[in-house]
Design brief:
This protein has 106 residues and is an alpha+beta fold. The chain has 3 helices and 5 strands, in the order αββββαβα. A 5-stranded mixed beta sheet has the order 1-2-3-4-5, with helices on one face. A hairpin with a 2-residue loop joins strand 2 and strand 3 (52-64).
């Protein structure tokens, strides 16, 4: 299997795993968003907690330049160890939220 397609499958597997967890409070729904055409993958939350609207990303990952770009990671322990454990080489993972990607992407 082509490595990029394998990376896509692994990212979706990790996001599906975290989508199984019900938030500890509130009426919050977790939605997976898988865009295979543009290789963008997300775990979104939406709902209500204590009278306040809750919405936004929990995980957002893109795949480009044969690398897995973690754009946002709201998981307490992070998802990089999960990605590595399932077969994505550490040197293929980019922590985009930690750097100015306009200088590193070409």
């Amino acid at each position: 299997m082509d490595p990029v397609n394998q990376y896509c499958d692994i990212v979706k597997k990790v996001i599906d795993y975290y989508a199984q967890f019900k938030p500890s409070h509130g009426d919050i729904r977790l939605d997976t968003v898988f865009d295979d055409r543009d290789r963008r993958y997300a775990l979104m939350q939406s709902g209500w907690d204590r009278g306040r609207r809750i919405r936004g990303n929990i995980i957002y990952v893109t795949i480009r330049d044969e690398k897995v770009w973690i754009e946002y990671d709201g998981i307490e322990a992070g998802i990089s160890d999960d990605l590595i454990a399932l077969g994505i080489p550490e040197d293929r993972i980019v922590f985009a939220f930690l750097q100015d990607i306009s200088r590193t992407a070409s």
